[in-house]
Amino acid sequence: MADLFEGGAVGALMGEVLKGAISTIKKGLAFEPTLESNIETLNSLAPLVEEIKKYNMLLDRPREEIERLESHMRAGEELVRKCSKLGRWRMWSFPYYQSKLQSKDGALQKHLSVNVSVQNRRDLMEVVDGMRKVLEILLNGEFGRYSGYQLMGLCGAPQEPACMGMEVPLSKLRIELLKDSVSVLVLTGLGGSGKSTLAKKICWDPQVIGKFGKNIFFVTVSKTPNLKTIVETLFEHCGCRVPKFQTDEDVVNRLEVLLRVLGKHPILLVLDDVWPGSEDLVEKFKIKIPDYKILVTSRVSFPRFGTSYQLDKLDHVHAESLFRHIALKDKSSYIPEKNLVDEIVKGCKGSPLALKVIAGSLCNQPFEVWQNMKERLQRESILESDTDLLFRLQQSLDILETKFSINEKECFMDLGLFPEDQRIPVAALIDMWAELYNLNEDGSNAMSIIHDLITRNLINVIVTRKVAKDTDMYYNNHFVLVHDLLRELAIHLSKEKTFEQRERVMIELNGDNRPEWWVRLNPLGIIGRSFSYILGMLYTQKQPKVAARILSISTDETFTSDWCDMQPDEAEVLVLNLLSSQYSLPEFTEKMHKLKVLIVTNYGFHRSELNMFERLGSLTNLKRIRLEKVSIPPLCILKNLRKLSIHMCNTCHAFDTYSISDAMPNLVEMSIDYCKDLVKFPDGLCNITPLKKLSITNCHSLSALPQDLAKLENLEVLRLCSCSDLVGMPDSVKGLDKLSCLDISDCLNLTKLPDDIGELKLEKLYLKGCSQLRELPHSVVKFENLKHKIHVICDEEMVASLWENLTIRNLKIEISTVEVNLNWLPGVHS
To answer: Where is the RPW8 domain (predicted)?
Structure first.
C-alpha cells in the first residue's frame, strides 16, 4: 500500500487523504488499550490517595497538595467515564478521545513524578529534621546535669602536661589549627617525638580554649581501633545514655547526631595515635559542621587529609635544657662535665622520649655509668626510625636496679602483658608481683619499684581519687600508663629468647587469625587439608607446650573462642584481655595447676558475659583473682583463694550456687568496686573469719550492712567509701576488735555513726563527704584511751561543727583535699 501512495497511480491530494484515514484508523485501534491503561492507573491510585488523605489530616499537612492530586484524579475519572460510553459507531471520534486520554495520563504522571516526588522529598527532610530535634531534646536532657555537656578533656588528657623545650612547635601548631581553612590537621613525627604530649597541651592553650570553650574531646585511637568503642566513649563522657548500636552504619549515624548537637558551639576533636590503615576511621568523623576541627596525631602524614604539620626533633639547646632538668635535678649527686652531657644529648638525636628516659636512668649515677652510656649511644649515629629509638631506650634498661631480689627490668617487661594505650591497674601489678617475685602483700614493695620506674620516666601513674596523706596502702585508684614505644620495647625484650624459653608469652587473637605456631601445631584448626593428613598430624605432632611463667592472651570482639589445646603447665599468672560480649575461659585453664593469679579484663564499653568459670575449680594453687567489667557467672569452690577483686562487674548471679563462705572460706582480702547492682553483702560473707581487708566502694545501691558484721573477728580494714545509699551502720561494728582503718567517706546519706564506735581501736577514720552526719556519738571520747594516735580525715566544715571542741589528747585531725578525675575510667555508668 505504501508503494501505491508513493507512486503515480493516484493523485497527490488523494494520497494525503488516505494517509490521514489510515492514521485515524490506527489511533482508533489504540484507543481501547489506552482506555484500559487509564482505568488501571486510576484504580491503583484511588486507595493510596485515600490513605494519603488520612495521614495528611493526622499530620496536619497542607490540604492544597492533596487537593491538586485529587483534581487530576477527578478529571481523569470523568474522561474515562465518557470514553467508556462511546460505541463502535463513533469510532471516528476515538482518535480525539485517545489523545485526550494520553494527555490526561501524561499530566497525572508528571504531577506524580515531579510535584509529589518533590513533596515527598521535602516531607522526608522534615521528618529527618524533626528526628534530629527530638534527639537533640533527649541529648540535651541527658547533658543537662552537666550544664550543657561542656566539660574540659572529656575523653582523655587527664591533666595538662609539661612541654619543656616545645614552646615553638606549640605556637606553630596553634596557628595551623586555628586557620579557618583547616578542618583536619595531621600532627606527624617519629615515635617519641612528643606528638601526644603536644596534642594534650594544645587542649589547654588559652587561645584554643577561647575558640572551643569546653567543647574539646581527646580520644586515643591506637593500632587496633574500634569505632563503636570510641563513639560509645564519646557518648559516655558527654553525659549521654550510651545507645546500643546495631550496625556500623548506626554508629556513624548516631555519631553525626551527637556532633551536630554539640556543634552549637565550635568543636575540637583530637584523635591521638592514629596508625596507617585507619584513614577510613578518621573519615567517619569528618562531618560538615561549622567550626568543627579534627586534630590527628600519627607517625605518618596521611596526605589525603590535606594539611599536616611535621614535628621536628628538638634542637640541641632545648634538648640539653630538657636533659639537664631531669638528669641533674638532684644537686647533691654527681655532676658531669659539660662535654659529657653534650655527647649524651647528641646521642639522643633530639627525641624527647629518649632524652627523658636516658636522663632518668642517669640521675644519681656515678661517672662510670655516664661514660658507659655515652659510648653506647655513639655506636648508633642516626635516628630515622622507631627501631633506632628503641635501641637508645634499651640502653637505659640495662642499668635498672635490683630491688627485693628482683631486677626492676623484669617488672618493666611485665607491662607488655596489657593492651596498648590502656591503663594498667596498680592493684593488678601488686597481685602479680606478690606471687611471682615474693613481694609483700600490702603493695609497699611494688610501689617502691613503680616509683623507680616513674623516676626513670619509663611510666606514668595517674591517681583518679586522691585524698591527702592517704598512706594506708590502698591502690585501687592508681593506674600505670606506658608510652606505646616503651610497651613495644617491653614486648621486644620478652621475645629475645626462643618461644620455649620465654618467661612471658603474649598472644593476640583477632577474629579467626591465629599465630603461625598455633595453626601449625593444632591440626583441628587446619582447614582444607586431607583427612589422612589431619590424622597423621594428630598422631605425630604434639600440642604446643608453653613453658612460660606468665601467659597473656588478648582477643578482639570478633574472637570465636576457638582455643588451641595448649599446655601452659608452668604458668603462674594468666592475663586475659578481652573485647567480646561473650567470653568463655579456655579449656586449658583446667590443667594450669601452678596458676596463682588470674586477671580478666574486658576493655569493651559494655560488660562481657563470662562463662565456664567452673574450670577453675580444680586449681588448688590459685590465690588471687581480679575481674573487671564482666558479668560474673556463679562462682565455683576455690578453697585456697586468698584475694578476690571485682571491679565494675555485674554480680547478681555470682553467689547463686554457693554461699561465698562455702566457695571461698580462706579469703583474706576482698575488694568490690563500682558494682552498681550490689545491694547487700554477699550471703555468708561475715562467716569468712580469716578476712582482714574488706573494701566495698562506689557501690551506690548498697543500703545496709549485715547485723552479724562482728563475726569478722580478724578484720583490720573496712572501706565503704562512696556508697551513697548507705544510711547507717549496725552497732555490732564495735565487736571488730582488730579494726584499725574505717573509711566511710562520701557516704552521702549516712546520718549517724554506731553508738559504740569509741570502743574500736582505730588508727584511721575517714569521714570526708559525710554531709548528713550532724552529730557524733558520745563514745568518741573513749579514743582518749588508745595507746596510739587516731587520725580523723574529714572536711573543714565537719571539723568546725563536730570535732573542734573535743579535747582528745591523741586525736589528730586531717583536712582532706580531694582530687577526682574520672575522665579516663571508661564505662563507669555502663
So the answer is: 1-150
∠ CA 574-576-577, nearest 5°, is 150
Query: CA–CA separation, 376 vs 373, rounded Å?
Result: 5
Distance CA 37, CA 39 (A): 5
Give the C-alpha separation, 620 to 186, whole Å: 53
Q: How many CB atoms lie within 10 A of CB 21?
A: 11
The Cα 188–Cα 298 span in angstroms is 5
Residue whose C-alpha is closest to residue 579's, from 595, 562, 600? 600
Alpha-carbon distance of 481 to 496, in angstroms, equals 24
338, 215 in Cβ contact below 8 A? no
Considering the domain 167-310, what is its CATH architecture?
A: 3-Layer(aba) Sandwich (3.40)
What percentage of the chain exceeds 70 in pLDDT? Answer: 74
Is 85's pLDDT higher than 70? no
Nearest to 132 by CA among 334, 309, 337, 289: 289
**Local structure of 256: helix, strand or coil:** helix
Tell me how far apart the alpha carbons of residues 149 and 141 are, in angstroms, rounded to a whole number. Answer: 10
Handedness of CA 146, 150, 155, 160 (dihedral sign): negative
Weakest mean pLDDT among 104-108, 120-124, 344-348 = 120-124
Helical (H) or strand (E) element with 255: helix 248-262
Query: Is the pLDDT at 792 greater than 60, yes or no?
Result: yes
Residues counted in the chain: 830
What pTM did the predictor assign? 0.78
What is the structure's pLDDT at 625? Answer: 98
Q: How far apart are CA 673 and CA 479, in angstroms?
A: 15
Listing DSSP states for 270-282 in one string gives EEEEEPTT-HHHH
Where do the structural domains in the chain lie, given as residue ranges?
2-129, 167-310, 400-503, 504-594+606-619+631-667, 669-830
Task: DSSP letter for 461, please.
Answer: E
| Residues near 418 by beta carbon (within 8 Å), at least 6 away in sequence | 424, 552, 575, 577, 601
Whole-angstrom CA distances from 424 to 350, 441, 503, 601, 656 are 29, 18, 20, 10, 31
User: How many other C-beta atoms lie within 10 A of the C-beta of residue 414?
Assistant: 24
Superfamily the domain 669-830 falls into: Ribonuclease Inhibitor (3.80.10.10)
Residue 48 has pLDDT above 90, yes or no: no
Report the C-alpha gap between 18 and 90 in whole angstroms: 19
As given in the structure block, the three cell numbers for residue 290 are 561549622
* pLDDT tens figures, 750-774: 999 999 999 999 999 999 989 898 8
